[in-house]
Amino acid sequence: MNIIICLKQVPGTTEVRIDPETNTLVREGIKNIVNPFDTYALEEGVRLKERYGGKVTAVTMGPPQAEEMLREAISTGADEAILISDSAFAGSDTLATSYTLATAINKIQDYDLVICGRQTLDGDTGQVGPELAEMLGIPFAAYVSKVEEINSGQMRVERMVEDGHEIVEMPLPAVITVVKEINVPRLPSLRGLTKAKSAAIPAWTAGELGIDRNKAGLSGSATRVIKIFFPQRVHHGEILEGDPESQVASLIDKLRDSKII
Ligand SMILES: Cc1cc2nc3c(=O)[nH]c(=O)nc-3n(C[C@H](O)[C@H](O)[C@H](O)COP(=O)(O)OP(=O)(O)OC[C@H]3O[C@@H](n4cnc5c(N)ncnc54)[C@H](O)[C@@H]3O)c2cc1C
Predict the structure, then answer these.
(1) Helix, strand, or coil here: 134?
(2) Residue 120: CA atoms inside 13 Å, Cβ hemisphere, count?
(3) How many Å lie between the centroid of ligand 1 and the Cα of residue 107?
């Protein structure tokens, strides 16, 4: 089983600040971490390798400093890692990110399973997993909470749905996104840390990948961030007086006046 894990480096805080001029995150002074959901994706990949044999390759599209996250991935069980990095990828939205990742995965060629986290802490869209599957033209299951079995090129997984769980069976290769209920990620091992220190991590550029620049980076992005802002907090409340009937009547009047109903 050759398993590819998609990991993203994200700011390690929910207290993000937005540069009002550029509408981008202020990243100075903020420590980056592995997107938490991606640690579960990695752990599941390593567990599947331990169960069925094979290799785990960690992949990220990001700036050069994302290499440090890939070394962390090796210290916790990934066999290899690839950094996809080029100024041509700056400003990518989810479509351009998925296109770039899909192009790299097609270059890796020999894979059975791609595992992503369910969503990131920063972009938070949960779109990259399904978009990747669509672009690779392979089956997809989201919110996977258990890999039940892999046998004869078929995979059976349990996925979380609103009112319970669903069992899905699909042929490999496939893409799954995982939830935190799937496992408990391990800590780095001493052997892993030593391996991570000296591991050679190739950096693939747009040129090496044969990227179509109209589909990557800002120019390949179907969306534009016009403005990012925090909603104003309104501390404003009113207690309605009277019996329940008159309170309800007064509430309805107020909602009508405010054109809410
Ligand atoms: C117009 C626009 C411009 C943007 N410009 C920038 C920018 O300049 N810099 C910037 O950092 N962000 C930028 N973003 C945000 C960027 O698009 C998203 O962070 C990125 O596309 C991934 O989407 P997401 O974070 O919502 O991932 P999700 O879809 O929530 O992620 C799901 C899973 O996909 C995988 N995944 C997601 N992203 C990656 C990745 N890069 N590498 C490997 N695996 C991944 C992970 O397994 C993750 O758990 C921009 C967004 C828009 C709309």
Answers:
(1) helix
(2) 20
(3) 20
